[in-house]
């Protein structure tokens, strides 16, 4: 498996990482651990988990697999979103026990959704507790995981607290995070991408995203992963695996693959942007909104409506669980039209915001 250096840490990790957040039947610890071990045997050496993933079973599953791996041949990543130091410490100790390791290689200050979230983690003592654990040898590298927009996340990274970052980046939303990706590269940070397949949207809508494929790409999935890992700033792309066949498909997408050069990536980006046909690319030119509406996040959620169908839960859940905002926030739109004047895709933003606002009146979806 092709490996890249993770920032300045001296570690090299596989360009495909194991995202342990999509096990179909998490109660079956041993069966899922076999999928993790299969990935290890195929050359994947970076395993990303977290408390609460998969009905809070993910760390147990990964731990069952790690106990069968040779020490020193793998790296494990886990996370904590607590703001209070004592809560982070308790979560860390629980993770160490469940994973069966003495040290977390990459420990994330998790789920920074709003610009003030990092300050809250600092004020609450979580960051200090993590740094103390690092001094004790319980954490090797302190990193962060975030869904912030590129510009906002860039400011977080420039504060110098972290050695790496995990962020969402795919052929669907790459313009939205580009500033953070460039910042990570300039700061010498490791960069792991989550949702490189658009959270499953790309393989589920393969015909819709057929424009991603080049002549030598065996599938849309392969093209999406290659687009991701070809970026010089990207260390590894996390794929949420459920079966051994999924592992094989991702591994084979990068085996023997020569990364696209910058010119090829630029051409792919142009082709992607020209082919979206109504989907928001998250470029951010619609901002700022005079009423403070977070338009790119709203439009990203509306993409779910276009791709996944009319069920409003796709939009509402995307806003709530991915972005940390509510559909009701769209009600602030005054229909001034400034965003539509600036939109490079000429999308009916006001109309879509009105529709999203209407979803807030509906019965809350089951999660």
Describe the overall structure:
The protein is of the alpha/beta class and 367 residues long. The protein folds into two domains: 3-268, Alpha-Beta Barrel (TIM Barrel), CATH 3.20.20.100; 295-359, no CATH class. It has 16 helices and ten strands. The strands form two sheets. An eight-stranded parallel β-barrel has the order 3-4-5-6-7-8-9-10, surrounded by six helices. The protein has a two-stranded antiparallel ribbon with strand order 1-2. α4 links the parallel β5 (75-80) and β6. α10 packs across α11 (244-254) and α13 crosses α14 (313-323). It is globular. The model has no long low-confidence stretch (mean pLDDT 92).
Structural class: alpha/beta
Remind me, CATH topology of the largest domain? TIM Barrel
Q: Which CATH architecture of the largest domain would you pick?
A: Alpha-Beta Barrel
Low-confidence stretches: none
Order of helices and strands: EEEHEHHEHEHHEHEHEHHEHHHHHH
Strand content: 5-15%
Helices, by number, come to 16
Q: What is the count of structural domains?
A: 2
Task: State Rg.
Answer: 20 Å
What is the CA-CA span between the terminal residues? 36 Å
- Strand element count: 10
Residues in helices, as a percent range: 40-55%
In a nutshell, what does this entry contain?
With 367 residues, this protein is an alpha/beta fold.
Protein topology:
Blueprint: E1 3-5, E2 12-14, E3 16-19, H1 29-41, E4 46-48, H2 53-56, H3 58-66, E5 75-80, H4 85-99, E6 104-112, H5 117-123, H6 126-135, E7 139-146, H7 150-157, E8 164-168, H8 174-187, E9 190-194, H9 201-204, H10 220-229, E10 236-240, H11 244-254, H12 262-274, H13 295-308, H14 313-323, H15 338-342, H16 349-359
Parallel strand pairs: 3-4, 3-10, 4-5, 5-6, 6-7, 7-8, 8-9, 9-10
Antiparallel strand pairs: 1-2
